[in-house]
Design brief:
Blueprint lengths: L4 H21 L11 E3 L2 E3 L9 E4 L21 H12 L1 H15 L2 H9 L4 E7 L18 H12 L3 E8 L22 H18 L5 E5 L13 H16 L6 E5 L20 E7 L10 H22 L3 E6 L9 H13 L3 E4 L19 E3 L13 H10 L5 E3 L1 H8 L28 E5 L6 E6 L2 E6 L3 E3 L2 E11 L3 E10 L7 E7 L8 E6 L5 E6 L7 E4 L7 E8 L2 E7 L6 E2 L13 E8 L7 E12 L4
């Protein structure tokens, strides 16, 4: 982002003032904290006055993530691999000592002063259960189990900053992703011993910190996403109740945050008050414009003006607060710090707590990086050791450097978050909704169906192998679908290919693609290879009638996107291509409950808003059927 000279001057003035304030604070008496609790949709102090928690995550400290250290994932997939390398090379004792040096230097009191200077009053503290417990002794605490949590709380308290304790990696692992500390370790869902271990560990934590007013709450399980498919909601509720009960045995004061799965929101928990739960708030992570959704002002405008209001209505219905544990708009071209300020203000107006990801990240070249995830980073280029070959002395020196390294601070962000009046951002006006299809051409050889009460759609036949389809519907998801399908009846093996030239943005989760469906009932089993408006390609499937859907997504791709759906020997494969030559499967083949009988095969289009239609353009539509045997 280009910053004007005036902005730089203002930034420097604010930085100097804030720096002076920070220095003055060091001479004040120890900060006092008001214990926090929930009241309706708000987090409040003992007087019942709302407290808006606004802050950041201090990631990569008590649980390492390789990308935040600029370490190649191919060399070390996760913290487990990283530490195993140290142990294999230098022995267990030296591994432990080196990691202590790392933790001593990654964050120090100066970091908490900087956090305070951004106008923040809370940190979310991600930690790995392994700093407290050895897997060989699953129901014992390490002798130094609380050393680093105590240290973090002490440094935060010195600056008047609340702490939310976040078990980022739980025993057994809650997802296959690296933020758990070890990839492919989602055992929490398969073996109840890991839920018991997690509950036991949280009980020890709650017993130690139950009298700490500086603790804002307990974030029990970070991102309980399993393998990013399937419905884990019944299991998650059961596990949450087990952990909640363990905490409440020793601590009835602190807020307990109930996490959302990847899909499905918090509705499966029911009303916490009616469940008899006290001081419970929900937590989820917001990343509009990232991880598959279009990085645009349109996306953020829709999220702020529609999604947040829908979420607010859900929370008001059950009188429960919300904590946005992770989020970050990232892109400078979309407003950068000013957009971040807008989100903080929107969250604050609703009484929601929010912590951005993340405070400190390293970059190879150093200095200010546009589209960054950090508040501070290294000012100079990294001179890092090769951890696979470097000596103990080299690695130790590098870890110690973290404590004294020169920082580059994201001053435009700090200015945006602390200035009295925010910069006003403009979002594009939404396009007028299409409620009636502009064309309703007759189809030859194909049948059009608006499934599940979808808004009546239409199509324009633009060639022998091409058509534009106008479809409505709320979703193709969960146990029941609502969308427009243009299909043929097929038996046996087949291959359907088509080029998807475009998909109009009616919603970030509008869909268009190729589908095989057992029948046209809303809950039919099916497989669908499709794209979102962002260009993200996905394979979704429902193996049995009225069952829960699953989905696997790829990265964003440029339009047009070529799609192929194949059934062979009872299994169905969905593939995509960017050049119509090299094909890549999105996920492993899927077998439906009925694969031998007649099925509906064709093009599916969803607006994700059943008050409007979206437009999808297909060409090169080819359906090849294997000869009957």
């Amino acid at each position: 982002m280009q910053v004007s000279s005036r902005s730089l001057v203002l930034s420097m003035i604010v930085a100097c003032v804030l720096s002076a304030t920070v220095v003055a604070n060091t001479d004040e008496a120890k900060h006092t904290f008001k214990p926090l609790s929930t009241s309706g949709t708000k987090i409040v102090d003992p007087s019942g006055d709302p407290v808006i928690l606004k802050g950041c995550n201090v990631g990569n400290w008590l649980l390492l993530e390789m990308w935040m250290l600029t370490i190649d994932h191919g060399k070390f997939h996760d913290e487990y691999d990283f530490q195993k390398n140290l142990a294999d090379r230098f022995g267990e004792s030296e591994r432990h000592r080196l990691m202590e040096v790392y933790r001593e230097n990654w964050l120090t009191p100066r970091d908490f002063k900087i956090i305070k200077s951004f106008g923040f009053n809370v940190i979310r503290l991600p930690f790995n259960y392994r700093i407290m417990q050895d897997d060989e002794k699953p129901f014992e605490l390490r002798p130094d189990a609380f050393k680093w949590l105590d240290r973090a709380i002490e440094m935060a308290e010195a600056e008047g900053i609340y702490v939310i304790l976040d078990m980022h990696g739980v025993p057994g692992g809650q997802s296959i992703d690296h933020p758990t500390g070890r990839v492919e370790q989602n055992k929490l869902w398969d073996d109840p011993i890991y839920a018991k271990r997690t509950a036991w560990l949280w009980k020890q934590i709650a017993e130690r910190y139950r009298d700490y007013d500086s603790i804002a709450g307990y974030d029990l399980i970070n991102e309980p996403y399993n393998d990013f498919s399937g419905d884990i909601r019944p299991q998650l509720r059961k596990i949450f109740e087990e952990i909640y009960a363990a905490v409440r045995e020793v601590d009835d004061r602190h807020i307990v945050f109930a996490p959302a799965p990847l899909w499905g929101g918090h509705g499966f928990y029911g009303n916490p008050n009616e469940n008899g739960w006290t001081n419970v708030a929900f937590t989820e992570h917001h990343y509009p414009g990232l991880f598959g959704s279009e990085p645009s002002m349109r996306t953020h405008g829709e999220f702020i003006n529609t999604t947040l209001y829908e979420k607010q209505a859900e929370l008001e219905a059950v009188q429960t607060p919300l904590f946005i544990g992770e989020w970050n708009p990232i892109f400078e071209r979309l407003g950068g710090g000013d957009l971040m300020r807008l989100y903080f203000d929107e969250y604050g107006q609703r009484g929601w707590a929010a912590t951005i990801w993340s405070y400190k990240i390293l970059h190879e070249k150093g200095g200010h990086i546009d589209d960054n995830w950090y508040m501070v980073s290294n000012a100079k280029p990294l001179v890092k050791p090769d951890f696979a070959t470097a000596s103990v002395q080299e690695i130790e020196a590098y870890f110690k450097w973290f404590g004294t390294m020169e920082y580059v601070v994201d001053e435009p962000m700090r200015l945006a978050l602390t200035r009295p009046d925010p910069v006003v951002l403009e979002f594009p006006e939404p396009a007028p909704k299409m409620t009636v299809p502009p064309h309703a051409d007759e189809l030859e050889g194909w049948q059009a169906t608006d499934i599940g009460g979808s808004l009546a759609g239409g199509q324009q036949v633009t060639g022998d192998d091409a058509m534009t389809i106008y479809g409505g519907g709320d979703d193709i998801w969960n146990e029941s679908d609502q969308f427009r399908l243009v299909s043929k009846e097929v038996q046996g093996d087949f291959t359907l290919t088509a080029t998807l030239n475009s998909l109009e943005y009616s919603h970030g989760y509008a869909k268009a693609g190729l589908m095989i469906r057992t029948d046209t009932s809303p809950g039919s089993s099916h497989v669908m290879i499709h794209a979102f408006p962002s260009g993200t390609t996905a394979l979704g499937w429902r193996e049995s009638a009225n069952g829960r859907m699953q989905e696997v997504q790829t990265d964003n791709h440029a339009w047009p996107i070529h799609l192929r759906l194949t059934r062979k020997d009872g299994t169905i494969t969905g593939e995509f291509s960017t050049d119509s030559t090299t094909w890549r499967p999105v996920a492993k083949p899927v077998a439906l409950e009925s694969t031998d009988g007649a099925s509906r095969v064709g093009m599916a289009v969803l607006s994700h808003d059943n008050t409007a239609l979206t437009t999808a353009s297909f060409e090169n539509i080819q359906l090849e059927q294997a000869p009957s045997r």
